[in-house]
Amino acid sequence: MLPYSTFITIDKKEKMPIFLQIANKTIENIKKGIIPKGTKLLGSRAMALSLGVHRKTILAAYDELMAQGWIETQASKGTFVSQNIPEIKPVSWHNNALSETPKTKTGFEFPKNAVLNKPILRGSSMLGFDDGFPDVRLAPTDALARAYRSVLKKGYQKHTLFYGDTKGEFSLREATRDYLNESRGLHIATDNVMITRGSMMAIYLATQTILNVGDRVVVGKIGYSSGNLVFKNRGVELLYVDIDENGLNVEQIAQLCLEKPIKMVYVTPHHHYPTTVTMSAERRMHLLQLAQKQQFCILEDDYDYDFHYSSSPILPLASVDTEGVVVYIGSLCKTISPAIRIGYVVAPSDLIDEMGYLRRIIDRQGDNILESAMAELFKEGEIKRHLKKSQRTYHKRRDVFCDMLQSALGHVIDFKKPNGGMAVWAKFDPSVSLPFLSEKALLKGLKINNGSTYNPDGVLLNATRLGFASINESEIEQGIGILKNLI
Amino acid sequence: MLPYSTFITIDKKEKMPIFLQIANKTIENIKKGIIPKGTKLLGSRAMALSLGVHRKTILAAYDELMAQGWIETQASKGTFVSQNIPEIKPVSWHNNALSETPKTKTGFEFPKNAVLNKPILRGSSMLGFDDGFPDVRLAPTDALARAYRSVLKKGYQKHTLFYGDTKGEFSLREATRDYLNESRGLHIATDNVMITRGSMMAIYLATQTILNVGDRVVVGKIGYSSGNLVFKNRGVELLYVDIDENGLNVEQIAQLCLEKPIKMVYVTPHHHYPTTVTMSAERRMHLLQLAQKQQFCILEDDYDYDFHYSSSPILPLASVDTEGVVVYIGSLCKTISPAIRIGYVVAPSDLIDEMGYLRRIIDRQGDNILESAMAELFKEGEIKRHLKKSQRTYHKRRDVFCDMLQSALGHVIDFKKPNGGMAVWAKFDPSVSLPFLSEKALLKGLKINNGSTYNPDGVLLNATRLGFASINESEIEQGIGILKNLI
């Protein structure tokens, strides 16, 4: 008899189930030839005794080995290691020597898209005042793990694990519908909602379905550069209008319409990105009337509606759009975690259908499992709870941050305490070079944006967003201390 | 004292943690006015006694209520319901009556993309011979739930929950690299791999980065209609070549090159989709030489490499491509579950970089959490285990299916037992109208494709794929019984 207990070792501290450990060790030893082909294995009782485990564990291990084809039973004779062990060696159809070097150069020409060729942000655990991101340390990861588990446990696996609707998991579309109707004064049906992978995909889908090459699109002179990349990649003509303390200059948009029709205005009215100013009610009304009259699309990106502090939030343009000219987008990436890529686009259903057709060829559909899990978290009230907690936390951080910033750097920074959102728009005195400051800060262990992503073409604003939401009060203090010492 | 235990009820069978149940019930009662603003709450000890729970549970509930702003502590006085309860009512900036009717019609013109306007497949629990999908009942959902949990528990949450690499989670790119090098004879580095959301997104990214409007792209006359949608949407010229028992006719491709350069050939050499034929070694070599000489891209879609039965699998074109002309794609959607949208594209790193730039504006990045979880499953051997089990299961199902199909319907169906994959390509005798049969079968509770998606423009093949992998042996018997009775 083979000394099974010496080469089938079990580690009870491992998280892998014991039956799998036994099966894996057995396979390993069959492969090495230690347990030869055709060997008769011990019966389950004897093997259980030999390895010191329950007989059911051995039965499970044998089932696993059988399913994988490593062992087979012969009626009334017992269990044997298969004669044909299931290691299939692929055959090469060509005896060329294979290249051993990974390739860096493609063997055919392809267009390099200079528009898109920009540095791409990655996560970093370094201290920093970021662009206005959430503190992922607050993310309800336990609840999310529970929700994943619960979705995967449920009986509707065929439904959840198979092809689904390109517009998103129905339960999450419903939850989003309810959440938006309740919190933003919208009056939408499920057919008006499509789940996307973050606001980014919502902008991409809107751009690809609504715009043609050469169409005229209005954005702020200071604006969202990632959004501009999507528009430029589509080959549209970008028209830039001014931003002042009331937001986007709508009078200038009206003037542009007189020249030639425009097709879309991209706007972040609640807190303009990056300057955080709120668009005035008068401007909103004017923009809406203009869009309805001229029949262009308002792409309303409400990226940080959920965070408002001193005053009550102002309802979005979408809430009073009677003519179907507003396409409204938002996401949970900025409210929970950038990695949880759940966003939405709200529009008349004919446009949502069209986006669904496009989605089919981009990535077929969203992640049913994640979307179902998020729907459960909405249902359980976990999302609202998280938002409320984050809102209070960020509110405090805003106050601490703005106070410290004013007292330590008020003489070289011009900023307004934002009434919402997750970042301050800080204009530096010309005596301080932001690119230079940013370099020096990095050496001291603090990341701040050097402002280049916010500069319109050919203009040096010497201004940046300083995010306060993702860091706690002592980190804020530490970071401002570093900046203070450098100025 | 308020009778807390009568309106703060606890359900120990609920999966929501008890402290959250207590917090939620408290909020509910504050909102209803049952616990008025300013009320002094019981101390934690007294409340614990009153509700019959541990004091730590009450402390956790109070923390939660504090964090959400429902209660506040006053030094040495105790805990009180907040005077300003955190219910923020948004203000409308406009007193227009809001539209109560969901919108179905957009208020501006947008192009309807007739190419994409096709029916979209959804999941169904009805019995059916499908296109060749996996049996999601075999999916390792417990292991996946464990992996999600483990990823969410780990210390590297900042990394996992934040913005990541647009090319995919590094650990999964590495695992995919190893898996492909090991199983398919590739010699690639991590820089040659990008994680995508299924093969669909791999085709989309390749199409958008490599092709320009008007480029010439070769596909099979009988081919993958979803892939063709992506090419057509890009505005390229599609050229169709014949398929015979050796796969794509490469001689015809060589002829097309003589006319005018071609830019891409889309091919499924391992088992041609939909006919399941394997491309011969001679054709493969010819195609590769042609691509290297003419500098066009071979887009090799190896959608079902993992499932091969009677013979050993043949290595992909990518394994002998020394010139960087093959872009190789595959996915786990067909091997585990269509809902787990993990695919990959393998190419020289300059092209992978370009796809990464494009990915940034489509949906920013993949799902870090899912990708990390899949990397764990690779590491634990769970993926290989699953593939091995599925392979054996599908092998048996293929044999049972082909035997039954031959004996019950051999007189009206012409088919070859496929040496791999998950479906049979069945050509029906002209005496049987497939569209009509499909309609009748549906009434009897069996879904089969009426063949329309496989027909080239203007040709009626009267043939369809009959998938055998997603159904067990008794379901196969039942389904074939239905067809037999209808013929």
Model description:
The structure is a homodimer of 487-residue chains. Chain A is α/β, with parallel strands linked by helices and 487 residues long. Chain A is built from 16 helices and 16 strands. In chain A, the strands form five sheets. In chain A, strands 4-12-11-10-9-5-6 form a seven-stranded mixed sheet, with helices on both faces. The first copy, chain A, has a three-stranded antiparallel sheet with strand order 13-14-16, covered by helices on one side. Chain A has a two-stranded antiparallel sheet with strand order 1-2. In chain A, strand 7 and strand 8 form a beta hairpin. The longest helix of chain A is centred in the C-terminal third of the chain and has 28 residues. The first copy, chain A, is elongated and about 90 Å long. Chain A starts with a helix and ends with a helix. The mean pLDDT of chain A is 90. Chains A and B meet through helix 4, helix 5, helix 6, helix 8 and helix 9 of A and helix 4, helix 5, helix 6, helix 8 and helix 9 of B.
Question: Secondary-structure map with pairings?
Answer:
Two copies of one chain form a homodimer.
Chain A: H1 4-7, H2 18-32, H3 44-51, H4 55-68, E1 71-74, E2 78-81, E3 128-129, H5 141-153, H6 157-161, H7 170-184, E4 193-196, H8 198-210, E5 216-220, H9 225-233, E6 237-241, E7 243-244, E8 247-248, H10 250-259, E9 264-267, H11 281-294, E10 297-301, E11 326-331, E12 343-346, H12 349-362, H13 368-379, H14 382-409, E13 413-414, E14 423-428, H15 434-443, E15 447-448, E16 463-467, H16 473-486
Parallel strand pairs in A: 3-15, 5-6, 5-9, 9-10, 10-11
Antiparallel strand pairs in A: 1-2, 4-12, 7-8, 11-12, 13-14, 14-16
